[in-house]
Specification:
alpha+beta; about 35% helix; 24 helices; five-stranded mixed sheet; single chain; five-stranded antiparallel sheet
């Protein structure tokens, strides 16, 4: 706006010359120290006149951005969390009630609309008052206070050691404040200054600006503040902690009434308005707006994941400190993929599956994470715990996010068990074989230094290591026999998968896991890396993998072989409208669609016949998984619209050892079955959640399966490695196998367990270069 002439500060006038020479320095001293500045104070500056002091200062200063909270939103735009060091929600002056505007002007600067940044009458009154009484008063105008708050903000943002906080000002600080106040008045209108001040000033604690204060103390917007509420907030500005109505209600009430009296004296309100307001109670209705993910409730773990993504991404700043400053001060709007309503349901189901408050469950947890096939969008990320500092008394609180890797706040993954078996089947199909092909699933025995085909390894092979042969077991009796690949996968038979793998290239199996985003979380001295074919035990689930990776990988089966990288953030925009670069949808065709269709033919039967049994509307498909001693149990299943990994197991005791076993352990303060597997806790959790979740997303066909030609009759084959197995001569059809297994329900439950059918025999530990848990069934 146009520059204004002030006779007070115009050095062409007599008054201006007096002020320039002595008044500015002296009167600044009155404001800062409550006394007239002695000549020695002026001499401190090294300048001979107040005019020289003013002239030596720059005419303007850089106003750095005002810190604003960042907001994380779900896919529908609902707020998940806010991040701030200063809780501030800037609003336009028209969105601040007239009563609030009048109150702040009456108590802080009643001649605000009359002066040009400096108030001569106010200064004169302060001089007289400070010379004639023991009390001390200042005469800073609202413009000066606005300038001072801007300077303090600059110091915070730049990390300056210099401070212009009230009570710590030098005389030169006051002189600078005065000159900048005049400069501000030339650049901004009175309404712009008042708006800036009311959005900038501290009201209490970390509540900055009138909108945040109105919400904090009255749970209303600034535009709806009434007279008495406005007077109370205006009174807080002078001493925010002293006049806090929650901590000091009596002082706050007294201060409010003095502000009302000032408003009446200046004519801002009538006698009737004053009398009514002064008789009212404080009427506070506090609300809180906590900063960070601890205030996000069931969305806390997803919030934590998003936070870690931003703090690791150099698109948001060169250093972690820069990125943290942007998050807490930059006013970012972070839109995400989360379906928060569904996530709330996931958290509820996770808690119902594994009660976090049960005494027996101190180291037993559950997790659900869902990904959308075709986009990679993360839809849910929930677990049975509260996102909060850990408690020694209970396992109900933790910051560990079970769904993701360590570097993103996770727990480092869990052994996948038999959820890894589909990758062997894909390699089988890749090499030209069929699901109806038969495999002799005899009891596996691989001597030390047995060679496995592995074209990507030195010499094109890898070997069974250790000092003893590798002899992994099946969980259920009756399956060391010839069967189709389909049957072996349907019943999750270790021996079938291992004999399959022995006929294909281990590198082809491992390559599929890499293409679909599965990483061994402990591949490289505790760091994630590709699953290595050097250890044949990976085919039955020895690697530690994350639930999120599982959900994304299985989403590929739902999407005709197209893998989409998981993503959580769709856009990030700051308060000025600047867009930050975020990962776009990244999808690629990684599996032959026909191979996926053939695989889905079996996985559909697992999910429909063995897991859902009519409870989840289809088409659905999925795979069970359990590691040794059931310290990690899974069901990963999907429709064409949503893929969900359900995990239940141990965290601290996740190592697959007998002392950590869940078989017969106390779970939910009750004794668990003697044989715990995926059907005990993980699969029922998946069913409970997906029975509702699938209603929100597509449920289309997975695609056609290639028809098998009728096989020629073959002579019955007897498996010499298990001659006592009378089931060798039975049909491999699903119907007869199902009938056999249904007749002994307990054996059906065992089929997903990693426990040997002969516990005594398992004492001779299978040894390969493998990690514990290489004898999985599930």
């Amino acid at each position: 706006m146009a520059a204004k002439k002030s006779p007070f500060f115009d050095t062409a006038t007599t008054l201006g010359k007096i002020v320039a020479f002595f008044g500015i320095s002296a009167l600044c001293g009155v404001l800062a120290a409550g006394m007239i500045v002695p000549v020695a104070a002026i001499a401190k500056t090294g300048l001979t006149t107040g005019n020289n002091i003013v002239s030596a200062l720059p005419s303007t200063f850089e106003k750095l951005p005002i810190p604003q909270p960042s907001r994380v939103l779900d896919t529908e735009g609902k707020e998940i969390a806010t991040f701030y060091e200063q809780n501030r929600d800037p609003v336009k002056l028209k969105d601040i009630s007239p009563e609030m505007r009048k109150a702040i002007v009456s108590v802080e600067d009643e001649r605000f609309y009359e002066h040009n940044g400096i108030d001569p009458k106010g200064i004169a009154r302060a001089v007289v008052g400070n010379l004639t009484s023991s009390s001390r008063s200042g005469a800073s105008t609202l413009t000066q206070q606005y300038v001072n708050n801007l300077l303090v903000n600059n110091q915070i943002l730049t990390g300056s050691k210099e401070s212009t906080v009230s009570g710590q000002k030098e005389y030169s600080d006051k002189i600078r404040e005065l000159k900048y106040a005049v400069a501000i008045e030339k650049e901004m209108s009175k309404d712009e200054i008042l708006e800036g001040y009311l959005n900038l000033v501290l009201f209490s604690g970390r509540e900055y600006g009138v909108q945040a204060a109105a919400q904090r103390f009255f749970s209303v917007d600034a535009k709806d503040l009434n007279l008495q509420q406005s007077a109370m907030l205006a009174g807080m500005v002078q001493l925010p902690n002293v006049y806090n109505p929650i901590n000091n209600p009596e002082r706050s009430l007294d201060r409010r009434n003095k502000v009302l009296g000032n408003m009446y004296r200046t004519g801002a309100i009538t006698k009737k308005e004053y009398d009514k307001a002064v008789k009212s109670k404080l009427g506070t209705k506090p609300s809180s707006s906590a900063s960070g993910c601890m205030a996000a409730g069931d969305d806390g773990y997803f919030c934590d994941y998003v936070t870690n993504l931003i703090l690791k991404d150099k698109n948001f700043g060169k250093t972690k400190e820069d990125r943290q400053n942007l998050l807490f001060r930059g006013g970012l709007t972070i839109k995400t993929t989360l379906n928060s309503a569904l996530n709330k349901q996931a958290a509820k189901d996770a808690r119902e599956a594994i009660d976090p408050h049960a005494k027996s469950n101190k180291d037993i947890y559950s997790s659900l994470v869902s990904v959308e096939p075709g986009t990679g969008n993360i839809l849910t990320m929930a677990q049975n715990t509260e996102y909060a500092p850990e408690s020694k008394e209970s396992g109900s609180r933790t910051f560990y996010n079970f769904a993701v890797e360590r570097s993103l706040g996770g727990a480092g993954g869990f052994q996948g068990g038999s959820t890894m078996k589909p990758y062997t089947t894909l390699a089988w199909l890749h090499e030209g074989n069929k699901m109806y092909d038969k495999i002799n699933a005899k009891r596996p025995y691989f001597p030390v230094m047995h060679k496995w085909r592995a074209s990507c390894m030195p010499g094109g092979t890898t070997v069974t290591g250790g000092s003893e042969p590798w002899e992994p077991k099946n969980a259920s009796r009756g399956f060391y026999r010839t069967m189709t690949v389909d049957t072996g996968l349907y019943w999750s038979i270790n021996s079938a998968t291992i004999q399959e793998a022995a006929k294909v290239d281990l590198c082809t199996i491992a390559d599929y896991t890499t293409k679909l985003g599965l990483l061994d979380q402990d591949a490289d001295n505790g760091k994630p890396g590709p699953i290595s074919p050097a250890n044949p035990a990976f085919i039955i689930g020895s690697a530690n993998i994350t639930p999120m990776a599982q959900a994304a990988a299985f989403a590929t089966f739902a999407n005709k072989g197209e893998y989409c990288e998981p993503r959580a953030i769709t856009s990030v925009v700051d308060k000025d409208g600047t867009n930050y670069k975020v990962p776009k949808e990244a999808c690629s065709q990684e599996i032959d669609p026909q191979h996926v269709a053939d695989l889905n033919g079996t996985l559909k039967k697992i999910a429909t016949q063995r897991v859902s049994k009519g409870q989840v509307a289809g088409p659905i498909a999925g795979k069970t998984g359990t590691n040794n001693y059931a310290t990690s149990t899974w069901f990963v299943g999907y429709t064409t619209g949503i893929s969900t990994a359900s995990w239940v197991g141990r965290l601290d005791g996740k190592a697959a050892t007998e002392e950590n076993e869940l078989h017969g352990a106390m779970v939910n303060d009750q004794r668990a079955p003697k044989m715990v597997d995926s059907s005990t806790y993980a699969a029922p959790l998946w069913v409970d959640f997906m029975s509702k979740a699938v209603q929100q997303y597509d449920r289309n066909s997975f695609g056609s399966v290639s028809k098998a030609p009728k096989p020629k009759p073959k002579p019955k084959e007897k498996d010499s490695s298990d001659s006592s197995d009378s089931s060798d001569n039975k049909s491999d059809s699903k119907k007869e196998d199902s009938k056999k297994e249904d007749s002994k329900k307990s054996d059906d439950n065992k089929s997903d367990s990693n426990k040997s059918e002969n516990k005594g025999k398992e004492k001779s530990k299978p040894t390969t270069p493998a990690k514990p848990g290489d004898g999985s069934n599930g």
